[in-house]
Amino acid sequence: MSDTYDIYRNLNKARRDPTRNVWSLRTKVNGRPKVVGHSTDAMLTDVVFKVAESTRQLVIDNQRKKVCAIVRGTIAPTPQDPFARLTDPDDLWFLKRLCRISFNPYTSDRFYVCETGQPITRADAVIFTVNGAYAINPS
Length: 139
Description:
alpha+beta; 10-stranded antiparallel β-sheet; 3 helices
């Protein structure tokens, strides 16, 4: 397996059990992309945001869910609670750089910062939790 992973929200598992918001982790195995697991939390570094426009158009035309956007980066170990460090005053710099991000195929062809609507294509890191995805230094 490679160190580069694609992560995307698994909407099918959430539909079956709304309390189970999980992320799918995909990487190349023997040169082919393969889902290697699911997780309620994960972290990627050196992140790029990818949207397959042709697949996004299929989602819009057919009004059906399909993976058309991924977050790609290097997998990083996460603590049990990725936000636990935010209680330490020495880590306030971390909080200031953290932005909630999202993607909606019906409204945009890019990932965006939720607070500002600013489109993004890269980030230093992304933390995935059951409550959503949070980017560090998105650009």
